Amino acid sequence: MPNGFRPTGGGVSSMARAPRLCARCNSIATRAGYCDAHRPVPFAGARERWAARRPSNWQTLRRWAIKRAGGRCEFESCDRGGTDVDHIHPVAEHGLWDLDNLQLLCKPHHRVKIQQEAQSGRQRARGRRAA
Q1: In a domain, 77, yes or no
Q2: Which of 7, 40, 58, 127 could crosslink 54 through cysteines, CB 3.0-4.6 Å?
Q3: 85 has pLDDT over 60
Q4: Full-model pTM
Q5: Which among 97-101, 118-122, 126-130 has the top mean pLDDT?
Q6: Are 54 and 48 in contact (CB under 8 A)?
Q7: Which domain holds residue 44?
Q8: CA neighbor of 36 nearest in space, from 49, 27, 45
């Protein structure tokens, strides 16, 4: 090569990348396009949004569901004590906020059900994007 020039990495320059800037204040972004001061907090306000959507008689419905189940998990062949009142058909899938759509589950079975619902939600979302 003339003048001692040697290309590095197949001729690609080894210049440093310019830092990304915060989408709100133009300071250096640390993660996800925001600086530490402006980075969104995951799930911020989720509990309040959920509470605003539930009916005013939610606590009564919850107590009735626990009483109907006798305090036991309603998952088939489970004999643990129930801790979580859950919708049989999720509200996100047009389930209703009534006693017939509520069940009492133990923590492990509630976690399994939530994971299954999340997976089906992701599959629905993929189907909507593909269409």
Answers
A1: yes
A2: 58
A3: yes
A4: 0.60
A5: 97-101
A6: no
A7: 18-53
A8: 27
Same domain, 101 and 73: yes
Whether pLDDT at 58 is above 80? yes
Residue 114 in domain: yes
Share of the chain above pLDDT 70, in %: 85
Residue 88 in domain: yes
**Percent of the chain at pLDDT exceeding 90:** 43
Radius of gyration of the chain from its Cα atoms, rounded to whole angstroms: 26
Residue 96: count other Cβ atoms within 10 Å of its Cβ: 13
Tokens of 84: 């979580």
Amino acid at 62: R
Tokens of 73: 């998990």
Number of independent structural domains in the chain: 2
Domain identity same for 75 and 34: no
Residue 102, beta-bridge partner list: 87
